[in-house]
Amino acid sequence: MKKQLCMAALALFVTTQVSADAVKRYPLPGGSSFPIASAVEVKAGSTIFESGNIPSPKDAKAEAGTLAFWGNTEEQTDSVLAKIEASLKGKGLDMGSVVKMTVFLVGDPAMDGKMDFSGFMKSYVRYFGTEAQPNLPARSAVQVAGLVAPGMMVEIEVIAVRPE
Question: In the chain, fewer beta carbons within 10 Å around the N or the C end?
């Protein structure tokens, strides 16, 4: 059993080393600590394009299209990122495999129609730039007029890489 654990640890170390060599992440200029990469270079591996993910209802019994039904931007972002994480896991990847993220945010009526970027970031930093998962994707966040359902405020698509 001890030998199997050592071999598994060695395999994980080798995989991590290959990953580090296959993907280079460029930090933001000027020593910025904002948790995104200015660019990500993929040297080798296969590329996975995840379609846009939308949130699940926070409370399906609430009136459709309401804040109670969908939740706020932070709650919707949590739902979407959890879906992305599960989808990647099903492909043998994790959030550290994400090299590019595009975020679509609808303006929040409670914020005079402006997107709740702060609410988005509260969830985002639980998945990216942590000690457990330090890999940062290149990322864009844009405000859009609307998404597929009334009250929905978050859709996220990602590109991930599986190192060779």
Answer: N
Q: Residue 52: how many CB atoms within 10 A of its CB? A: 16
Task: Quote the pLDDT of residue 50.
Answer: 95
- The reported pLDDT for the residue numbered 7 is 42
For the chain, what are the domain ranges?
2-162
- Average pLDDT in the chain: 89
Mean pLDDT of the 136-150 span: 97
Q: State phi, psi for 101 to the nearest 5 degrees.
A: -135, 135
For residue 13, what are the contacts with CB-CB under 8 A and spacing of at least 6? Answer: none
Q: Strand 138-144 vs strand 98-106: parallel, antiparallel, or unpaired?
A: parallel
The fold adopted by the segment(s) 2-162 is 60s Ribosomal Protein L30; Chain: A; (3.30.1330)
Strand ranges of the sheet holding 154-162, from the earlier edge strand across to the other edge: 46-53, 154-162, 98-106, 138-144
pLDDT per residue as tens digits for the range 120-129: 999 999 999 9
